[in-house]
Design brief:
- The complex is a heterodimer of chains A (about 110) and B (about 120).
- Chain A has about 110 residues and is mostly beta strands.
- Helices cover about 0% and strands about 55% of the residues of chain A.
- Chain A is built from no helices and 11 strands.
- In chain A, β5 and β6 form a beta hairpin.
- Chain A is globular.
- Chain A starts with a strand and ends with a strand.
- The relative contact order of chain A is 0.33.
- The mean pLDDT of chain A is about 95.
- By secondary structure, chain B is mostly beta strands.
- Chain B contains no helices and 12 strands.
- In chain B, the strands form 3 sheets. In chain B, strands 2, 5, 6, 10, 11 and 12 form a 6-stranded mixed β-sheet that branches. Chain B has a 4-stranded antiparallel β-sheet with strand order 3-9-8-7, with no helix packed on it. Chain B has a two-stranded antiparallel ribbon with strand order 1-4.
- Chain B is globular and about 45 Å long.
- Chain B starts with a strand and ends with a strand.
- The model of chain B has no long low-confidence stretch (mean pLDDT about 95).
- The chains are: A mainly beta (about 110), B mainly beta (about 120).
- At the A-B interface, β5, β9 and β10 of A face β5, β6, β10 and β11 of B.
């Protein structure tokens, strides 16, 4: 079974632009979560989607948004990019929302904002 | 809010030795899960081991085991017979058991280097 895939793997943008990142979960997984990883703030939860609905949201500004499609693939969008948005963005998928459902992470998208 | 603390930013150990990584957490929840994740230089986050708070027995996965002390809110990871492939960042993480409202809260990580 294929793992979680994220595209693109690397991205360079300039301040003020917007960006869309994509995450394809493991087949059969209906939940997708997004995390931001930076050297200064560490790993922080962005949001989780399940069955096309946002079920949980972290403490990030409204410039960060996401959505999930009927095939469980998820996209994350960041508008009006700032230098501080440079980070590794990780997505994780799991079968259900139950806590015992293990999360499997993708390789991440490295976003650099110039 | 939950917090996870890893007080050892870096550690190194000779190959084949045993190493213990420390983690403490703070929560008022009684029902939760604790995790150790490994992130090698390739950046892929891999689940190493998981512990349910309601289970008194410490979890083990091959060479990896935990020492879970619920009262002390401590969750350390022991790696036995360490191998070069164990070189990675190790993150301790917490998830409360609240259906549909769960997220992983991570510690700051411990960079572990296995020396040949």
């Amino acid at each position: 079974k294929a793992g979680v895939t994220q595209t693109p793997r690397y991205l360079i943008k300039t301040r003020g632009q917007q960006v869309t990142l994509s995450c394809s979960p493991i087949s059969g997984h209906r939940s997708v979560s997004w995390y931001q990883q930076t050297p200064g703030q560490g790993l922080q939860f962005l949001f989780e989607y399940f069955s096309e609905t946002q079920r949980n949201k972290g403490n990030f500004p409204g410039r960060f948004s996401g959505r999930q499609f009927s095939n469980s693939r998820s996209e994350m969008n960041v508008s009006t990019l700032e230098l501080g948005d440079s980070a590794l963005y990780l997505c994780a998928s799991r079968t259900t929302l139950a806590a015992q459902s293990k999360q499997f992470f993708g390789p991440g998208t490295r976003l650099t904002v110039l | 809010a939950q917090t996870v603390t890893q007080s050892q930013p870096e550690m190194s150990v000779q190959e084949a030795e045993t190493v213990t990584l420390s983690c403490t957490y703070d929560t008022s929840e009684s029902n939760y899960y604790l995790f150790w994740y490994k992130q090698p230089p390739s950046r892929q986050m891999i689940l190493v081991i998981r512990q349910e708070a309601y289970k008194q027995q410490n979890a083990t996965e091959n060479r990896f085991s935990v020492n879970f002390q619920k009262a002390a809110k401590s969750f350390s990871l022991k790696i036995s017979d360490s191998q070069l492939g164990d070189t990675a960042m190790y993150f301790c993480a917490f998830m409360k058991h609240n259906f549909g409202n769960e997220k992983l809260t991570f510690g700051t990580g411990t960079r572990l280097t296995i020396i040949p």
